[in-house]
Amino acid sequence: MSDERRHLAAELNIGFAALTPLERLRSLVERAGGPVVFTTSLGIEDQMITHLIFANDLPIQVKTLDTGRLFPETYTLWRETEEKYGRRIKALYPQADALEALVNDQGIDGFYYAPEFRRNCCGVRKVEPLARAIAGAGGWVTGLRRDQSANRSDMDFVSFDGARGLIKANPIFDWSRDAIVAFTAEHGVPVNALHAKNFLSIGCAPCTRATRPGEPERAGRWWWEEETKRECGLHVDGADRPARDVTNRPARAGAAFERLPQ
Ligand code: SF4
């Protein structure tokens, strides 16, 4: 089965180049061999894909990971999107026990004090819920774009996610940000109000800042960390390395307290 899906992913990857984003989504639905799930962060790229799915009534499940730390503007957009299309965006939440353990171990904002703590938080709030969101799916749609960051530039339109055993498709991978902005304006797609305040890439509130002129799009995400390591673990790399074990608690429980300003 894995070999079949790997082969199919390679075929789709070649075919995608000549198709529009809508045609790519239709092609994935026809060939994925199982349910197709789109996980949206409600960023502008994802809003374009949500529009394509809802406006064309595609049989793709639209889900979001509510980390509990999102901006108020993101929740407003979530509601506005459901109202506009008359469709529900299914929510997934962190496991209560894991979240309690995380916060009690490393503090409510422990992610500022060590990369390990940041990965622990993303693990509990994002990566584990993602695993449930796409469990049993044949295809997983994302809004990744080639020019968002150096980490993403060598990805493909379509790949086989060996860690999760499914086909991962990026239907707007070759679209520029400007083209997506134009598309959303032309089609009346609701977008996050923070984009107009220079928040180019929007994640959790405590881990996102506005970008300054000339900065890369994702410069406002986890800005206190080394640039090359700023990913949350949702997207494994081309070598199919699995995301880290998200159920692990911090190696040094309580260490965050030692790092807090006294
Ligand atoms: S982005 Fe920040 S708050 Fe959100 S899950 Fe990751 S570390 Fe936690």
UniProtKB/TrEMBL annotation:
GO terms for cellular component: cytoplasm. Its main location: cytoplasm. It is an enzyme of class 1 (oxidoreductase). This is Adenosine 5'-phosphosulfate reductase. Binds 1 [4Fe-4S] cluster per subunit. Residues 36-210 form the Phosphoadenosine phosphosulphate reductase domain. The lineage of its organism: Bacteria, Pseudomonadati, Pseudomonadota, Alphaproteobacteria, Hyphomicrobiales. Belongs to the PAPS reductase family. CysH subfamily. [4Fe-4S] cluster binds at C121, C122, C204, C207. The keyword Cytoplasm applies. Residues 237-262 are annotated as: Disordered. Its EC number is 1.8.4.10. Catalyzes the formation of sulfite from adenosine 5'-phosphosulfate (APS) using thioredoxin as an electron donor. Its cofactor is [4Fe-4S] cluster. The active site is at C232 (nucleophile). GO terms for molecular function: 4 iron, 4 sulfur cluster binding; adenylyl-sulfate reductase (thioredoxin) activity; metal ion binding; phosphoadenylyl-sulfate reductase (thioredoxin) activity. GO terms for biological process: hydrogen sulfide biosynthetic process; sulfate assimilation, phosphoadenylyl sulfate reduction by phosphoadenylyl-sulfate reductase (thioredoxin). Residues 237-247 have a biased composition (Basic and acidic residues). The gene is cysH. Keywords: Cytoplasm, Iron, Iron-sulfur, Metal-binding, Oxidoreductase. Pathway: Sulfur metabolism; hydrogen sulfide biosynthesis; sulfite from sulfate. SUPFAM superfamilies: Adenine nucleotide alpha hydrolases-like. It catalyses: [thioredoxin]-disulfide + sulfite + AMP + 2 H(+) = adenosine 5'-phosphosulfate + [thioredoxin]-dithiol. NCBIfam families: PRK02090.1. It is found in: Cytoplasm. Pfam families: PAPS_reduct.
